[in-house]
Write a structure and sequence with these properties.
This protein is mainly α. It contains 8 helices and 2 strands; from the N terminus they run ααββαααααα. Strands 1-2 form a two-stranded antiparallel sheet. The chain starts with about 35 loop residues before the first helix and ends with a helix.
């Protein structure tokens, strides 16, 4: 970082601009001032938030907003929802994604997936919720085979019996 109040050469020449920035025209030495950490911090703080030319305010994107909240909201040791597990996710409460710290919470992955409804979908797709239907022979295989012979699509058959299409495919493969 070069400041304008840098040292002058004994010959009295000022610094040069351009690719030789900071070099004296007469002696060729670098006379730039070494900037202290305190000055660097002051300069950095002068560019934070609304003072920064790249500041977007409420028109910020998803990732940038989460980054902003991560910097400003303290992360607790336990999930704010269940108080059991470590929090890994920063979840939006209202779904509006405002620049409001109180509209976000630190929660564990399990609570986050439950709140979003992703846990039931995940378990369903992995076949854990429908294993009882699949392996206890509660699905009428003969009827499924007849429907398939009629030309009914596997996904339509799956919807008829309330299971995932992969379950029908597994049952037909047996």
């Amino acid at each position: 970082m070069v400041l304008k109040d840098h040292l002058k050469c004994e010959k009295g020449d000022k610094y040069m601009k351009g690719h030789n920035y900071g070099l004296c025209r007469k002696c060729g030495k670098n006379h730039t001032m070494i900037v202290s950490n305190e000055t660097r911090l002051k300069h950095r703080l002068s560019q934070v938030g609304k003072k920064n030319s790249m500041w977007k305010g409420d028109n910020v994107g998803y990732a940038a907003l989460h980054g902003w909240v991560r910097e400003h909201k303290l992360k607790p040791k336990l999930c704010e929802n269940c108080n059991i597990n470590k929090p890994y996710d920063l979840a939006n409460i209202s779904g509006e994604y405002k620049r409001d710290i109180n509209d976000f919470e630190w929660i564990c992955r399990n609570c986050h997936m439950k709140k979003d409804g992703r846990l039931t979908k995940f378990l369903k797709l992995n076949g854990k919720m429908e294993k009882s239907l699949c392996w206890n022979n509660n699905l009428p295989i003969n009827e499924i085979k007849k429907e398939r012979q009629k030309g009914t699509a596997i996904k339509k058959i799956a919807r008829m019996y309330g299971v995932d299409y992969r379950t029908i495919m597994r049952r037909l493969a047996i």
